[in-house]
TrEMBL record:
SUPFAM superfamilies: GroES-like (SSF50129), NAD(P)-binding Rossmann-fold domains (SSF51735). Residues 16-366 form the Enoyl reductase (ER) domain. The lineage of its organism: Bacteria, Bacillati, Actinomycetota, Actinomycetes, Pseudonocardiales. This is Zinc-binding dehydrogenase. Signal peptide: none annotated. It comes from Pseudonocardia kongjuensis. Its cofactor is Zn(2+). The keyword Methyltransferase does not apply.
Length: 371
C-alpha cells in the first residue's frame, strides 16, 4: 500500500476536557522504525489519570496527546533496518505486533542496573505530546508510529486483537511482578488485593503457577464471580467485609500464620497497609497497582523483626510481553480471559470509553478502524 500521509486520531487538547478527532501527520519512516495500523487499543485507569491531568508534567503527560498505551497493530511499513522482531523472527508487512516503550540503551538504568522500565529517557505511548514528531504515539489513532528503539514481538494470530491488547498492559505487568517476586510453592497461600484486570490476571498467574490457595479481595460482585471462575479458593467482597474480617479469613486459611504472598493490585494506599497485616512473618508482598500518592504508614519492624520482603515493579520489558501472549495461548481453555474486557468503542467515542473506566466498567476496547 502507499504510505499514508495523515491519520485520524482522538486528540486530547487539554487535561480534563473532551477528546476530538484530528488528522495528524504521519512522520517519514526512520530506518529502524515501523508504521502500524491499530487493530485494537484497550484502556486502563492510567488513561483516566492521564486524561484528568493527574500525571501531567515534564517527562510525564503533555498535551495535546493521543491517549492509549495498550495497543496491537499490523505492520503497514517497515524501515529498511527493521527486519525481525526482538526474538529474531522475520517481520513482514501485515504481521501483527506489540511493542514495548522506547528505552535509550545509554543510561544507568538501561545498561548497569538492567532495569529498562526505569530508563531515564523512556518514551511512552499515550502520554503525548502529539504536536511534535513522531505525532502518532497513542493507540487511539488509525496509525501508530513504532519508534526505532521500541522492541517488538509478533502477536499470535490465534488471539483476538482486544485480548492481545489487554495483555500489553495488565497481563505483562502481572508477569513482570511475578518474575520479580520469585518462585511460588504449592504450599503457598496467595492473597490478591483487587479484582480489576491486573488483579484478575495476577490471580490467573498465581493459579497457573500452582499456588496452593488463592484468596481474591475486591468488588463488585461481577468481578468476584470472575475470580471464582478463575480458581480463587475464596473471593471476598471488599465492600461487605471489614479489614479485621479479611484478616480473620486469611488466618483461617493459613493455620493462623497469614498469607505467604500478598499481591497488591488495588491502587489505594490503604491496601499496602492491609497487605502488611495480612502477610505472614517472613512472607512476601509485591506492589503492582499502587497509584495513590498518599503515604501508607507501616511500622519499620515489619521488615526486620517480621522479616517481610517487599518488591515493586512498573510496566514491563519485551520479554514480559512475549510471555504474556504465550500465557494467553496456553491457558485460554482454563480461564475465560475475555471476561476482563468491556465494551467496544469507535474512535469518535473515546470519551465514552474513558467514562466507562471512571464508572467501574471492565477494560473497554477502542477499535480505530470501526465505523
Ligand atoms: Zn494500561
Ligand atoms: Zn535508558
Amino acid at each position: 500500500m502507499t504510505y499514508p500521509r495523515t491519520s485520524p486520531a482522538a486528540v486530547l487538547p487539554a487535561f480534563g476536557g473532551p477528546t476530538e478527532i484530528r488528522e495528524l501527520p504521519v512522520p517519514p519512516l526512520e530506518d529502524d522504525a515501523l508504521l502500524v495500523e491499530v487493530e485494537a487499543a484497550t484502556l486502563c485507569g492510567t488513561d483516566v489519570h492521564i486524561a484528568d491531568g493527574d500525571l501531567a508534567g515534564p517527562g510525564f503527560a503533555q498535551v495535546p496527546l493521543v491517549p492509549g498505551h495498550e495497543i496491537v497493530g499490523r505492520v503497514v511499513a517497515r524501515g529498511r533496518d527493521r527486519r525481525t522482531d526482538s526474538l529474531g523472527r522475520p517481520l513482514r508487512e501485515g504481521d501483527r505486533i506489540a511493542w514495548a516503550y522506547a528505552w535509550c540503551d545509554r543510561c544507568y538504568w538501561c545498561t548497569v542496573a538492567k532495569q529498562p522500565t526505569l530508563c531515564a529517557n523512556r518514551m511512552m505511548y499515550g502520554w503525548g505530546p502529539s504536536d511534535t514528531a513522531p505525532y502518532l504515539t497513542g493507540g487511539f489513532s488509525r496509525y501508530c508510529y513504532v519508534r526505532p528503539r521500541c522492541r517488538t514481538v509478533l502477536v499470535p494470530e490465534s488471539l483476538p486483537a482486544p485480548l492481545a491488547a489487554s495483555a500489553t498492559c495488565a497481563l505483562r505487568t502481572a508477569i513482570h511482578a511475578f518474575e520479580a517476586l520469585g518462585p511460588l510453592h504449592s504450599s503457598d497461600t496467595v492473597v490478591i488485593q483487587g479484582v480489576g484486570p491486573v488483579g484478575l490476571y495476577a490471580q490467573a498467574c498465581a493459579v497457573a503457577a500452582g499456588a496452593g490457595q488463592v484468596l481474591a479481595f475486591g468488588a463488585p460482585a461481577g468481578r468476584l464471580d470472575v475470580a471464582s471462575r478463575w480458581g480463587a479458593t475464596r473471593a471476598v467482597d471488599l465492600s461487605a467485609t471489614s479489614a479485621e474480617e479479611r484478616l480473620e479469613t486469611v488466618r483461617a486459611h493459613t493455620d493462623g500464620r497469614g498469607a505467604d504472598v500478598v499481591v497488591e493490585c488495588a491502587g489505594v494506599a490503604d491496601a499496602f497497609t492491609e497487605a502488611v497485616d495480612l502477610v505472614r512473618r517472613g512472607g512476601r508482598i509485591v506492589v503492582v497497582g499502587a497509584a495513590d500518592p498518599r503515604p501508607s504508614l507501616v511500622p519499620a519492624t515489619t521488615f526486620n523483626l517480621r522479616q517481610v520482603s517487599v518488591v515493586g515493579t512498573v510496566s514491563a520489558d519485551i520479554s514480559h510481553y512475549h510471555r504474556a501472549f504465550a500465557f494467553l495461548e496456553r491457558h485460554r481453555d482454563r480461564f475465560d480471559f475475555p471476561a476482563v474486557l468491556g465494551d467496544p468503542f469507535p474512535l469518535d467515542r473515546v470519551d465514552a470509553a474513558l467514562d466507562s473506566v471512571r464508572t467501574g466498567g471492565m477494560k473497554p476496547v477502542v477499535l480505530p478502524s470501526a465505523a
